[in-house]
Amino acid sequence: MRAPLPRLHAITDERTARRPDLDAVAGALADGGGSNLAFHARGRGLTGREHYDLAFRLSALPSPLFVNDRLDVAMSVPAFGVHLGHGSLSVSVARALNPLWWIGKSVHSLAETEAARAEGADYLVVGPVYATASHPGRTPLGLSGLKQLVATAGELPVIAIGGVTTERVREVREAGAYGIAAIRALWDDAEPRAAAGRMREWMS
Fold first, then answer.
1. 154 in a domain, yes or no?
2. Which of 12, 68, 80, 116 is a plausible cystine mate for 16, CB 3.0–4.6 Å?
């Protein structure tokens, strides 16, 4: 039986992955988030070797590790799960590689949510809920849009992403999100341990 899906997801991007203080900040986030925090080794612009090195370093921490997009990297480290984007292989392929993985899909609309459910995803990352520098050209869903996608997701846990700051955690939770995912709100906070702790507390 699998361990529960964490509620707080600290996602990397290319900039974060290449930070010289990555290990120190990741350690602080792990301390603050405890067992309810998971790391996502992500970075679409990373080379295969960079993606592997990132995943390997994060896998040394006590927090669960998800590998985004790269199933080959996920097979080479102790991964708790994988997260698949639109250019990734299918849920069924990932399931065949490791039936114990938590397998997630990114969705941005009702149609994508329904398709991910039909495909057999275990959880969904929904966004952007708010305007975010990570996707400047995408219209935010807002809390009303998030509620619609949560209802469409049915029994699947929904992780909200996109502009979710510490101050917005409670309203996102009240909109029905199971958990939250963030890049800047965690990795760029001056006190990452405290930021992860507050988010973990308010999502519980």
1. yes
2. 12
Q: What is the mean pLDDT of residues 122-136?
A: 88
* Cα separation values, 173 from 53, 104, 117, 200, Å: 33, 19, 21, 11
Q: Where are the alpha helices (DSSP H) in 81-165?
A: 91-97, 110-119, 142-153
Structural domains in the chain (count): 1
> Under a CB-based contact definition with an 8 Å cutoff, are residues 43 and 69 in contact?
no
Domain that holds residue 24: 8-203
Has residue 135 got a pLDDT over 80?
Answer: no
pLDDT digits (tens, 9 = 90+) for 154-171: 999 999 999 999 999 999
| Other CB atoms within 10 A of residue 67 CB | 28
Residue 174: partners with Cβ closer than 8 Å, 6 or more residues away: none
In eight-state DSSP terms, residue 2 is: P
